[in-house]
Amino acid sequence: MNKYKKLALSILFDAIGMISYIFPGIGEFVDIIWAPLSAWIMTRLYKGKPGKIAAVVNFVEEALPGFDVIPTFTLMWFYTYIFSKKK
């Protein structure tokens, strides 16, 4: 998959994770469904050990109340394509 297509998907998935703020009170219950789903998506979008570590971080970030504002998918994209040195 093209890296810019991954960036667009990463931004979209981060936005979906922030949607729970639209529904005060019930939004955190939506995160019960979104947290494992987003972790699974992270492992499919970013392969290997870094993807698995990011999936765990993403799951915890989405499951904990108030941490949805962290753009985990986008940060992983930057790590993968900007900061990580290719072997």
What form results from the Cα inertia axes?
A: elongated
Q: Helical residue percent?
A: over 70%
Number of helices: 4
Order of helices and strands: HHHH
Class from helix and strand fractions: mainly alpha
Largest sheet features:
none
Unreliable stretches: none
- Rg result: 13 Å
Straight-line distance between termini? 19 Å
Number of domains: 1
General description of the model:
There is one protein chain. This protein is an all-alpha fold and 87 residues long. It has one domain (3-19, 32-83). It is built from four helices and no strands. The protein has helices at residues 3-18, 27-45, 48-63, 72-83. Helix 1 runs antiparallel to helix 4 and helix 2 (27-45) packs antiparallel against helix 3 (48-63). The longest helix has 19 residues, at 27-45. The two termini are 19 Å apart. The model has no long low-confidence stretch (mean pLDDT 89).
Features:
mainly alpha, 87 residues, 0% strand
In short:
This protein has one domain.
Task: Give the helix/strand layout.
Blueprint: H1 3-18, H2 27-45, H3 48-63, H4 72-83
Helix pairs in contact: 1-4, 2-3
